[in-house]
Write a structure and sequence with these properties.
Blueprint: E1 6-8, E2 41-46, H1 51-65, E3 69-74, H2 99-114, E4 118-121, H3 150-164, E5 168-171, H4 181-200, E6 206-211, H5 214-223, E7 252-255, H6 260-269, H7 279-287, H8 289-293, E8 294-301, H9 329-332
Parallel strand pairs: 1-4, 2-3, 2-5, 3-4, 5-6
Antiparallel strand pairs: 6-8, 7-8
Length: about 325
């Protein structure tokens, strides 16, 4: 039985600039229009299959479970990923180069685990290729996402925004959280799309970037010190890490510990990328649902809503928004 995650093929290819179908037989499904969707609509832009589960899986499952419409846009198929299933080694880019197609099914299973029914590949499945890590020759592949024309790629995302009219968008910061070129490009594309949508009157009211508070990293250094799978084993100074946000700059803490099992199931769906003995599962076993279920965000665009604690962290990405009223004149007029 195939999972129920929906796919949309996107618009036709535009010409490449200077910067820089799913395997199942079912027909493409498109959202009919904003008037048929729930009042709260969340759009997430991720670089590769599995990024959504690792970085925002609990948040996605939380909002899907509470009735919000969650749209996931994935920018590449993850063709350059490592393969942790020996019998599938022949799918690698250097062999049959079929890993991307296989990961479509993994992502579909992850979406089903998270309760996400609206998933798109930016510009259609396979439009943009995984660029590999920074500095590798794969960055120069003709279809590498790192080489994508910014306005063309952003245009594909604008079409999705025009259809879904999300009030909240989530993506990465300027460094792509940890410096991967596709994460950086996903950030650039998402932020450019917000600019273009704003010019047409339907931009999301709030844009968040995934984040990790310094206090959580400091606690991790202590808690994981005696773990055999300590991801911080070689770290002596937090400034050595490519990520980490001062607590005062964090805007939202989403406590979705009740969804930690869904997040773990989604991660396990990405078996080629996350082996059963991954430190992620080991540490989750040691430190429980909070490790899997709590996710943090920096507010890049929009006004912060009501929060709590010493820094006023929001507990809802829609905090402060009136999601029952039309976002703008274009929406009110029923334009799409």
């Amino acid at each position: 039985m195939w999972p129920t995650c929906r796919y949309a093929s996107g618009t036709a290819a535009g010409p490449r600039g200077t910067r820089g179908e799913p395997t199942r037989a079912a027909a493409t499904v498109r959202v009919a229009g904003v008037t048929t969707l729930p009042d709260r609509r969340l759009l997430l832009v991720h670089a590769h299959p599995d990024d959504e589960s690792i970085g925002t899986g609990s948040t996605m499952a939380h909002y899907a479970a509470t009735g919000a419409h969650v749209t996931l846009v994935t920018c590449t198929l993850g063709e350059e990923g490592e393969i942790h299933v020996p019998e599938l080694a022949g799918l690698a880019a250097a062999e049959a180069d079929q890993l991307g197609g296989y990961r479509i099914a993994e992502l579909a299973a992850a979406c089903a685990a998270l309760g996400v029914t609206d998933h798109r590949f930016l510009g259609g499945a396979g439009r943009y290729r995984d660029s590999g890590m920074m500095g590798l020759a794969t960055n120069e592949h003709p279809r590498a996402f790192w080489q994508a024309d910014l306005d063309t790629a952003a245009g594909y995302l604008v079409e999705i925004m025009r259809e879904v009219r999300p009030q909240v968008l989530v993506t990465y910061d300027e460094n792509g959280f940890y410096g991967h070129p596709d994460h950086i490009q996903a950030h650039r594309v998402a932020m450019r799309a917000v600019e273009l949508a704003r010019a047409e009157g339907f931009a999301p009211a709030k844009v968040y970037w995934t984040a990790m508070p310094i206090s959580v990293l400091e606690a991790g250094l202590t808690h994981f010190a005696d773990s055999a799978d300590n991801p911080f084993a070689d770290v002596t100074d937090l400034s050595e890490l490519p990520f980490g946000t001062p607590d005062k700059d964090i805007a939202a803490r989403i406590d979705a510990t009740d969804q930690h099992a869904a997040k773990e199931a989604a991660m396990r769906a990405h078996a080629t990328q996350i082996p059963d003995n991954s430190w992620l599962y080991s540490i989750a076993g040691n430190f429980g649902s909070e490790f899997m279920g709590v996710e943090y965000f920096f507010l890049a665009v929009g006004e912060k809503g009501p929060g709590s604690g010493p820094y006023g962290w929001e507990d809802d990405l829609f905090a402060g928004l009136d999601t029952t009223a039309p976002r703008d004149a274009a929406t009110a007029a029923g334009h799409r």
